[in-house]
Write a structure and sequence with these properties.
- It is built from three helices and five strands, in the order αββαβαββ.
- By secondary structure, it is of the alpha/beta class.
- Strands 1-2-3-5-4 form a five-stranded mixed beta sheet, with helices on one face.
- Strand 2, helix 2 and strand 3 form a beta-alpha-beta unit.
Amino acid sequence: MWETPQDLFDKLNEEFHFDLDVCATVDNAKCATFYSPEQDGLIQSWYGRCWCNPPYGRQFGKWVKKAYDTAYVDGNLVVMLLPARTDTSWFHDYIYHKAEIRFLRGRLKFGNSKNSAPFPSMIIIFNPKELNNG
């Protein structure tokens, strides 16, 4: 799992005041309340102000769809750290013209990694209050 850089999370948490980390382990949870892999955040209810740095893999699009639904069906704010892959179906189906996109300058160093990620990253903000303003 690619652990969110603490300084990045701290800045976002200062802005959004997260209640729940929907995808974490005991070792890398960013909120006191979190869903572990055993709890499977994809099948849990997300509530309040949610933080999500999903596992990068085949189920990636499911995490993005869950975030979209949590915001625009259930009415909860969701902020995600994602690879900036603007050519994917999940980007066009659930993010483009539907969420705030903040592209991050440079490449992040996840966790205690000595090297930067091999991809650019973006912060996605699914804010149900902003749906009609995008």
